[in-house]
Specification:
The structure holds 2 protein chains of 2 kinds. Chain A has 9 helices and 13 strands. By secondary structure, chain A is α+β, with helices and mostly antiparallel strands. In chain A, a hairpin with a 2-residue loop joins β2 and β3. Chain A is globular, with a radius of gyration of 21 Å. Chain B contains 16 helices and 11 strands. In chain B, the strands form 3 sheets. Chain B has a 5-stranded parallel beta sheet with strand order 2-1-7-8-9. In chain B, α1 packs parallel to α11, α2 runs parallel beside α16 and α7 packs across α12. Chain B starts with a helix and ends in a 6-residue tail after the last helix. Classes of the chains: A alpha+beta, B alpha/beta. The interface between A and B is medium-sized, with 19 and 29 residues.
Chain lengths: ~350, ~350
């Protein structure tokens, strides 16, 4: 990769639209994300997509720290948007990439992030087809912010929605919860503690497509990111008008994550994930779904964690605790962890 | 594990049957409160056994008058306020530290050492450490006061709100709530003061005191042990938290607290003035006492209108009985401290118990 030799840090002028901007794009960004559509550097990308039905999503990434065990802001920016497309029942095709960079940001860090973006895009079979770069004065952003938007092609015959969820449906998760959120907080400068924690940051499209193509009982999917399992299950319960009962003993949690959450007073159900999905499936297809998950690297620890049930009064999420007690799982009110994604 | 839980449940049921009346057991530790709710322990207990969440959350028991002094100091340009994070959202008369934080002279610290370091890093300001907590956090405050004295960090001082658990338990039994049959005693506090410290409650008031840890099994077995005693008409002192709690506790920690602090009468939210229940810096360290330094006097503060945190803390009412609960007072927009602190009884009810619904 050819470097802009004179600078080792981003300058405001790198966003000025002149020679330095051109250098940044041609010498850093294009080589990292090499593909024909992007290389045209047109005002918009032209995609050849044969489908009547597309999914389109966007997300911004402001995670702090930028680099953490198991990932970085670049990998997150690709996987996060890929996952939003994946759980909507589509196969991700193309992403946009917008970088907002603070004056003074080191080129070597930018390069590291771009390499990571490129690797994640390759692994998830998506291309970065259009993008934008802006620089802002020191203090106007915190190092680098990234926005990605994504387009996915809806899988044939896949229909999912809250209205399809019924009493008796099983709730499947593809692995341990809380890994991303606890990793991030353990690596915050103001709290840092030594741990073996690792973010679960991963693109789920491979697994979700396999599930949707090979089974037909999946009613709904969502990735439990901010707000964790608690937020996602509450959204599902509220929107479907049905209650949900989960069993603590069946929810996979990495013991290190549990210990860290206990130490800091967090409820692991409310901690963010970046490589997990919840699937609501018909009882008949639950075992098939579980088998497919367990044969995939991102679903080895998949479990059925509970069921959809009739609401007594208002729809609620309840958990049978390990000692056989029962408690409400509330919608988290979301102050605990700022900037985790 | 389930077998041992079953055994504890059987003891609870037997006691309820034997006594033929409601049994009230109070936990006086915020961590117990959270664990009880998080693990759904109440739902596993017989109907006749009621758990009361007592004055065990440091933020909750801190009197409004103390909060108002902190806010008053936060308004001074020559001060930096160093506080543990859970104090920051407690509303005062007109504001909260969180709102003052925008003015950048309020800093959240994770330890007393961080507060002292803040003073060293900002020699032009006086750092006031908001020193709250029970016997568990008092030793850490004592350590930094001694360090500040030894190192001559004169721009450091503390506003001591440290509280002692046993005097509060005495006050509860003496006046406010004599319905309490027994105490599930705090694990962390007992590590410092030793389980022997609760002997006076057993001897003077005839109430069983059992120290337990925070795992659901420990709590259940603690309740089981209490019920065994109640059914047998006994009141004994016992610790089942053997891994970390001894009879005499952490002597070194007790010594450093005794060197720096003396117990004086102090104000508690809901409980009022309790004799020898609050830690004040001894005269030889008085220059590190924010009250002395800024010539302030702590007076009992007024509760905010409608807030019944005081009654909640005494086990007189359950949070949903407060008219504000879940309506005007929620974790997002708290009015009382029991809804602010994650260890507060109201926050635990709201989060794990659900809002009161018809039926």
């Amino acid at each position: 990769m050819k470097k802009t030799s004179k600078h080792d840090r981003i300058l405001l002028a790198h966003g000025g639209g002149g020679q330095l901007t051109d250098d940044l794009i041609r010498h850093y960004i294009l080589p990292s994300l090499n593909n024909e559509v992007l290389a045209e550097l047109g005002d918009s990308a032209k995609l050849n997509v044969d489908s009547n039905s597309l999914c389109f999503t966007t997300d911004s990434y402001v995670v702090k720290p930028l680099f953490f065990n198991g990932g970085d802001i670049g990998k997150l920016a690709v996987c996060g948007t890929v996952n939003d497309l994946a759980v909507a029942g589509s196969k991700p095709v193309a992403l946009s990439l917008s970088l907002i960079i603070e004056d003074g940001f080191e080129f070597k860090l930018l390069e590291k992030i771009l390499v990571s973006i490129s690797k994640a895009a390759r692994q998830n079979n998506v291309s970065i087809v259009t993008g934008d770069t802006k620089t802002v004065e020191a203090g106007a952003a915190d190092k680098i912010f990234i926005n990605t938007s994504g387009i996915g092609v809806k899988l044939n015959g896949v229909e999912m929605g809250f209205e399809r969820i019924a009493v008796g449906d099983k709730i499947i998760i593809n692995g341990t919860i809380g890994d991303h959120g606890m990793t991030i907080i353990s690596q915050r400068e103001d709290i840092k503690f030594q741990s073996q924690l690792q973010s679960d940051c991963a693109g789920l499209a491979g697994l979700t497509c396999e599930l949707l193509e090979n089974t037909n009982g999946i009613k709904f999917m969502r990735d439990p990111t901010r707000g964790g399992l608690a937020a996602t299950l509450n959204e599902i319960s509220r929107s479907s008008g049905l209650s949900i009962e989960i069993r603590q003993a069946d929810i996979p949690v990495n013991p290190t994550v549990q210990a860290a959450a206990d130490m800091l007073g967090f409820d692991v159900l409310t901690i963010a994930n970046e490589g997990k999905f919840i699937a609501i499936v018909s009882p008949e297809s639950a075992e098939d779904c579980l088998r497919i998950c367990k044969n995939h690297p991102l679903g080895k620890e998949a479990r059925i964690i509970g069921e959809v049930c009739q609401s007594r009064d208002v729809p609620v999420v309840e958990m049978i605790t390990q000692i056989g007690g029962k408690r409400i799982v509330q919608m988290p009110y979301g102050r605990e962890l700022p900037r985790i994604c | 594990m389930l077998e041992r839980i079953q055994k504890a449940q059987n003891l609870c049921e037997a006691a309820c049957k034997q006594l033929g009346r409601q049994i009230n057991i109070m936990e006086v530790c915020g961590t117990h409160t959270v664990s009880i709710f998080r693990n759904g322990i109440r739902s596993t207990l017989p109907k006749g056994l009621k758990l009361l969440s007592g004055p065990g959350c440091p933020v909750c028991v801190t009197d409004q008058g103390y909060i108002d002094i902190v806010l008053q100091l936060a308004d001074r340009d020559d001060c930096l306020i160093a506080t543990y994070g859970d104090m920051i959202r407690v509303p005062g008369k007109n504001s909260s530290l969180e709102k003052k934080q925008a003015k950048t002279n309020v800093k959240v610290v994770l330890s007393s050492e961080d507060a002292l370091q803040l003073a060293k890093d900002n020699p032009e300001k006086t750092v006031v450490f908001v020193a709250v907590g029970f016997e568990t956090t008092a030793p850490a405050t004592a350590v930094v006061v001694k360090e500040a004295a030894e190192q001559g960090v004169d721009n450091f001082c503390i506003l001591s709100g440290h509280k002692l658990v046993v005097p509060a338990m005495r006050a509860l039994l003496s006046a406010k709530n004599d319905k309490i049959d027994a105490f599930l005693c705090p694990g962390h506090v007992s590590v410092i003061i030793g389980y022997g410290a609760f002997a006076e409650i057993v001897e003077d008031f005839g109430r069983p005191c059992v120290v337990a840890g925070f795992e659901p099994l420990q709590i259940m077995e603690g309740l089981g042990e209490i019920c065994r005693q109640l059914a047998a008409g006994k009141a004994e002192l016992k610790s089942i938290y053997n891994a970390v709690v001894t009879e005499r506790g952490n002597i070194a920690a007790q010594e450093i607290v005794a060197e720096c602090f003396e117990a004086v009468d102090g104000y508690w939210r809901g409980l009022g003035k309790i004799a020898k229940s609050t830690l004040k810096l001894k005269d030889k360290y008085s220059r590190f006492d924010a009250l002395t330094r800024f010539n302030l006097t702590e007076t009992p503060g007024e509760e905010r209108t409608g807030c019944r945190c005081g009654e909640v803390l005494c086990g007189l009412i359950e949070p949903p009985e407060c008219g504000l609960f879940g309506q005007n007072c929620t974790p997002q927009e708290p009015i009382g401290p029991c809804m602010v602190s994650s260890e507060g009884a109201c926050a635990a009810w709201f989060k794990y118990g659900g809002i009161r619904t018809s039926g």
